Every structure is written in C-alpha cells, then in structure tokens.
Amino acid sequence: MAERSGPSGPLSRTAMAYVLAGGRGSRLIELTDRRAKPAVYFGGKSRIIDFALSNALNSGIRRIGVATQYKAHSLIRHLQRGWNFFRPERNESFDILPASQRVSEDHWYEGTADAVYQNIDIIRDYEPRHIVILAGDHIYKQDYELMLQQHCEQGADVTVGCLEVPRKDATGFGVMHVDTDDRIIDFVEKPKDPPAMPGRPDMALASMGIYVFDTKFLFDQLERDAATPGSSRDFGKDIIPYIVKHGKAVAHHFSRSCVRSSKEAAPYWRDVGTVDAYWEANIDLTDVVPDLDLYDREWPIWTYGEITPPAKFVHDEEGRRGQAVSSLVSGGCIVSGANLRRSLLFTGVRLNSYSHIENAVILPYVDVGRKSTLRNVVVDRGVVIPEGLVVGEDPVLDAQRFRRTEKGICLITQPMIDRLKA
Question: Would the keyword Cell inner membrane turn up in this protein's UniProt record (predicted)?
Fold first, then answer.
C-alpha cells in the first residue's frame, strides 16, 4: 500500500466522508420492503453500508456523515449500535442525517446532490478541507487517501472514482470519456455505445458514484444547482456533467486505490442490487479462496458486533448429523442434525434435524423446520420455515409460492410462508 502523506500529513485527516444511504434498492424487491438497500445484510454479520464506512475509517477519515431517507429505521439503529465510537474530543464526528426538510418544509431529499445541499450548514461547522461523496450500497475495499492525493496533485475540481469494465458491460453505468491524462472530456449516462479508454478499445471507465471535491467548490456548485430551474439535484445527472463542461473533472481508476490482501487476485467491486447478484456475492464467500477476503486483519470491515455464543453442531447419527461443508456459519447458530453445503448462515440461525440446505443465504434468526430441503435460496430475517418444506426442486411450484428469479434463486419472506398456511 502506498505511503499516505499530504502537505501537513494525511489528507484524510482534514477530509469528511459523506455517505449517501437513502436509496431503496427496488430491484432487491422484498428484501427492501422494511429496510433501505444500505441496511441489507451481507457476508454473515455485516450490512452493505459497513463497507463504505469501513473504507473511510481505515483510510484515516474521522469525520463522517450519513444521509438517510427510505425506511431508515433499521439502518439508523445499526449505525447507532455499531458506529457510536467516534469521540469529539479526538476531533472525530459521526452524524446521521435523515431528510428533515432543513431547507424547505415541502420536500425531502430530491436527489443525491440535494441530500448534501440540505446539510451544508452541518458540514460547514466541521470545516473539512475536502469532501468525499460515497454511495452506501456497494461491496468493495478502497483507500480514499490515495484518491485524495490524486485530486490535489492534479488540481482537479472533482475527481471521480471509476471502474474499468468491458465496453459491452458498461451500458448500465454512467461512463467517463477521458483523454490520455485521465481528464474527463465527456460524461454519458447509460450509453448504447460506451466510449473506450485511450489505448484500450475494449474497455470503458464506469462511474462508481464516488467523488472528491474541495469543500468550498462543492458548496458553490450545490448552491448554483439549487438555483437552476429543472435540475434533478443529482450528482451524476447534473453536477458532474456541468463540471466536465465548465471545469476540470478527472477520473481516478479504482485499480490504483483498491485494497487487496495477498489472497485477492483482482480488484473487487460488486453492486449487489438484484437478488441474483446478492445471492452470488454472498455464496462466492464460501469458495476456498474467495474473490473478497473478509479475513484481512489489516483492513477490517467494522460493524455492530452482536454478543452471541459460538456456533454449535449437534447429533452424530447416520442421516441426522449436524455438519457444514464449504459454508460460513455465524455466531449463535445451531446446526442440529442438519446438513449444510455451500451456504452462508447469519447470526442466530437454527437448522433442525433431517433438513438439507445447499447454496443458501439465510439471514439472521431464521428457524428451519425438520425435514426441510432448501436449495438456491435467500431467506429473509426471522422467517420460520415449516417442517417438510421443499424449495429448489420444482421450478413451477417455487414460482407460485415464492419470488423466483430468472436464474432460479428463490427469495423467501415470512409473508410468503404465511400465505402457504392460509
């Protein structure tokens, strides 16, 4: 990892991270019926937002604001429990900023830029030199200090975090058209024919929704945009395109600041915004050497550490043996005479005798009844699976009872189970 230094020490010391965490994530359908996408569980004990917050903390940033909006209760509760260790006497701060109609009493946050604009007075009180704007709904590890360094070295008005993706896969992103110095000369939202990277005709630069600004410049842009009729008050749609045309916007390649342990072969970034993508990213963690190393002690993923007893495996009879193969099992789980393969259990899951679980992502405090079979599923928090339920063997029946994706993954929630009993 590169040495971190600025004019008077690390730039992160005088920066503030501002996390945009108000989105619903509607493509996760029932998983976000009761919680915002950043509050969705991931990886056994974390929430999705913990990755952006941990990146900020591990990068040396000690002032953090989180803007919330959609069904924010579980997210706010998680932040209060897991991120309450910042101390003002150490020049640290952690602010949860729900949409509170600070600027006008007739609207909530209208867009990502408005979610910052409405809290300018709070940010100004902390006097940060730079603002790092972050999306709160992606899985990745990144050192923002390196991005701050590039921003200052190149004298940019805005530095945009970018992923290098195959051009054929870039049509769903905002794509940066850059010159040989990585200056952004055009910004295209979801283009049918994405512009290629210089010298790499098959690759494109897709925006990660991560931006670095000098604070005063950002405030000027937000105030200008707020006074512009017809603006959607959005960074990707309004602020960034304006700066590309009238200022200096620079691309920062994620590959230059991604954090990898010795076990991670390639830069890792995932948008787990669909049930299929969510299932795949969690199940991938069960690989012998997964693409994402959650065991990297040099870049820990901080979260709310719930106090639980160790996981427990009981019964050792033929056909009724508590065992797990190629699986992650969190604290408080009891595998009681059940067979678990290539699955991930969150905190407090109970698997009862003679049940068979395979390729399953099971959220906290689920109780799986005896003689159940669950394959290729995501089970929401607190669901009680009735005895003998079989999922993953009959696609037609599964689709009638549960939310079944095109790739054959079944999402199971308690209301769906309750309808089976009606």
Answer: no
Alpha-carbon distance 132 to 109, whole Å?
A: 19
Determine the Cα–Cα distance for residues 23 and 193; give it in Å rounded to an integer.
Answer: 28
Question: Residue 247 in contact with residue 161, Cβ under 8 Å?
Answer: no
> Does residue 157 share a domain with residue 42?
yes
In the structure, what pLDDT confidence band is assigned to residue 103 with cuts at 50, 70 and 90? low
pLDDT digits (tens, 9 = 90+) for 379-417: 999 999 999 999 999 999 999 999 999 999 999 999 999
If residue 20 lies in a helix (H) or strand (E), which one and from where to where? strand 15-20
To the question of whether residue 207 is assigned a binding role by annotation, the answer is yes
Residue 263 phi, psi dihedral angles, 5° rounding: -95, -5
* CATH number of the domain residue 373 falls in: 2.160.10.10
Structural domain boundaries, residue 109: 11-273
Does 257 count as an annotated binding residue? no
To the question of whether residue 109 is assigned a binding role by annotation, the answer is yes
Q: Are residues 119 and 226 both part of a single domain?
A: yes
pLDDT of 64-88, one tens digit each? 999 998 889 999 999 999 999 999 9
> pLDDT band at residue 6, thresholds of 50, 70 and 90?
very low
Contact 370, 338 (CB under 8 A): no
356 and 210 part of one domain: no
Rg (CA), the chain: 23
- Contacts of residue 220, defined as CB under 8 A and 6 or more positions apart, other chains included, come to none
189: annotated binding-site residue?
Answer: yes
Q: Which helix (H) or strand (E) holds 47?
A: strand 46-47
- Return the DSSP state at 262: T
> What is the pairing mode between strands 403-404 and 410-412?
antiparallel
Residue 270, classed as helix, strand or coil, is strand
